[in-house]
Amino acid sequence: MKLYTRTGDAGKTSLIGGRVAKDHMRVEAYGTVDEANSFIGQAMTLMGDEKLQDIYRELEKVQHELFDCGGDLAIVGDKLPYKANAEMITFLEERIDAYIQEAPPLEKFILPGGTPAAAALHVARTVTRRAERCIVSLKHEEEINEHVLKYMNRLSDYLFAIARVVNARLGVKDVEYERSAIVFRSKDEKEA
Questions:
Q1: How far apart, in whole angstroms, are the C-alpha atoms of residue 172 and residue 169?
Q2: Where does the record place the Cobalamin adenosyltransferase-like domain (predicted)?
Q3: What is the pLDDT of residue 184?
Q4: What per-residue confidence (pLDDT) applies to 24?
Q5: Where do the structural domains in the chain lie, given as residue ranges?
Q6: Which CATH architecture has domain 20-191?
Q7: 140: exposed, middle or buried (C-beta count within 10 Å: 0-12, 13-18, 19+)?
Q8: What is the pLDDT of residue 157?
C-alpha cells in the first residue's frame, strides 16, 4: 500500500460524494476534528498513572467517536447514513456531571495547566472549540449532521472537566485567574 496517491497534488481532495479544494470549509472542519483527536492522543500518553486509567479508556472511546464525526463531516449531502448520534452526546453529558462532582468546587476561571496531562487536555479542549467554530461556519453553507456539532460542544466541556479531575487526582490545584469575578455558582446559590 502506498501512502501517497498524487491525486491531491493540484490542491483537491476527495470527499464522500465529490471532490473539493483542500481549503474548502468541509475539509477545514474535519481536519480540525482530526487535529483535536491528535491532541487527545498526546494527552493520553501522559496518563500512565493508575489513578487515570478510567479516563484513559474513556478517551479511547472518544477518539473512535471523533473519527465518526470526521467521517460524517466528509459526506456531501445524504450519500450514507451518519454515524454520530445522540447517545454519544448523552455519554459525554453523564461523564461531565460525574466529574463535576469529583473535582473541587469551581467559582472562577482557571488557568490552563497543572499536571502535564491536564495541560495537554486543555490544549485538546481549545482545539476542539476551534473545530466547533469550523463546523458552525460549514453549517452556514452546507448540510451537516447536527449531532457532530452538539458532540464537539459537549466534548470541549468534557475535556475541561477531566483536566480538572486529572489535577485533583494527582494532587495539583488548579490556578484561578486572579482577576476573575465569581462566574460559576452552585445550583443552590443560583436559586437563592
A1: 8
A2: 3-166
A3: 82
A4: 81
A5: 20-191
A6: Up-down Bundle (1.20)
A7: exposed
A8: 98
